[in-house]
Amino acid sequence: MSDENMEKIIHDEWKKAINKEFTKKEHQADFRKGVIEGATEYHDLVKRQEDNPDIVDKRMLTESPVLNDKKLRYDGANILPDFDALERGGKKKWLTKKD
Questions:
Q1: How many domains does the chain have?
Q2: pLDDT in tens, 49-81
Q3: CB neighbours of 50 closer than 8 A, spacing ≥ 6?
Q4: Rounded to two decimals, what is the model's pTM?
Q5: Least CB-packed of 56, 57, 72, 88 within 10 Å?
Q6: Does any domain span residue 98?
């Protein structure tokens, strides 16, 4: 097995482990609160546009600037890391060999 294949396997397993940790209920409650209430100005704007608090929360979970700022995504059930955004910004720095 080549080093490149091994790095991909390790990276894929690492992402699975991170996603599993993120989906724990005790973490999701904090993530949801941070995403929904974190962008105060945007939250206030959405509240003025919507009468139903449930719709406000749903919109914040998909539109909140916190998602982009912190490189997170909402999959319809959980807030998870946006690995595509993270990799665009960091190019797997943790896997880079240091000589």
A1: 1
A2: 999 999 999 999 999 999 999 999 999 999 999
A3: 56, 59
A4: 0.79
A5: 88
A6: no
